[in-house]
Amino acid sequence: MISYNPKSWFNLIFALHKSDTIRILWKELLYMGAFSIILTFLVLHFFPNAVVLNQLVSVYALIGFVISLLLVFRTNTAYDRWWEGRKKWGELVNDTRNLAAKLDSLNPSEVDRDFFKRMIPNFVLATKEHLRLGVDFGELHLTEEEKAFLETKTHVPLAISQMMQKRIQELIKKGDFPVYSSWILDHNLNALLDSLGACERIKNTPIPYSYSLFIKKFIFVYVTTLPFAFVINFGYFAALISTYVFYVLVSMEVLAEEIEDPFGIDDNDLPTDQLAQRIRGNIEEVLS
């Protein structure tokens, strides 16, 4: 995730960051500009007196209004997914802190304290990687026995949760933890799994294919035929106008596509790496 000062207008306007849509779409902008110039040339030289072209401005203004409504809904939907993902990771921060604080109050032994000091951050780190391509065991603090066990599992965060739950039940049976501690700690362990499930739902439920396909086709047809509406009044400037409108509309779609899956490594995705390391630091401090 990019850190920036939202009040620095001058820097934001003239910055050309790698996540800027100009750098993403520059080839498409060149193609669109060349196509618009060719189309404008053909209209001006072969259909200079076409009366129907003068009537297209109002039609395209109406269609542009419809597209703007679709894009507003599209970007709002994508941002809702991004913001819900951020809320779930905020809940992960709170629930891991609560779990560590409750475990510390039960005064576990040094061996058990070390186990939970490793496993709570391991759950978060495994969740982070699980929502991407797969778990990187190099990030996790594991014993050889624990690593061998987790390598046999397809859902590593769930397996880590099971390991913590099993350890708690063993401590209760031994009498190291009071019986009532089970339901107290279960609440936070279940909350961790709830947040994980919500993040999986966001990741595994993309925008419906037909809806995404329709928007892309709608924008493409609208922009490629836009020079017809402006060529009579603006001449070759119609190509410039069409290219700029193409940049605005397609940029909104590109941004929506990027933030609708907020758990990756794109510039505008959630800072899950930083959040996971923050959680590790908090847990180690609480259980030290």
Number of strands: 0
The assigned structural class equals: mainly alpha
Cα gyration radius (Å) = 27 Å
The arrangement of helices and strands along the chain is: HHHHHHHHHHH
User: How many helices does DSSP assign?
Assistant: 11
Average residue-wise pLDDT: 87
Biggest sheet descriptor: none
pLDDT < 50 runs, ≥5 residues: none
From the spread of the alpha carbons, the general shape counts as elongated
Cα distance, first to last residue? 30 Å
How much strand content do the residues show? Answer: under 5%
Helix content: over 70%
Helix-strand layout with pairing:
Layout: H1 9-14, H2 21-46, H3 56-105, H4 110-130, H5 144-150, H6 156-174, H7 181-204, H8 209-224, H9 227-234, H10 237-259, H11 272-287
Helix pairs in contact: 2-9, 2-10, 3-4, 3-7, 3-8, 3-10, 3-11, 4-6, 4-11, 6-7, 8-10, 9-10
Structure description:
The chain is mainly α. The chain has eleven helices and no strands. The protein starts with 8 loop residues before the first helix and ends with a helix. The model has no long low-confidence stretch (mean pLDDT 87).
Question: What key attributes describe this structure?
Answer:
mainly alpha, single chain, 288 residues, 11 helices
Describe what is shown at a glance.
Helix 2 (21-46) packs across helix 9 (227-234), helix 3 (56-105) runs antiparallel to helix 4 and helix 6 packs antiparallel against helix 7 (181-204).
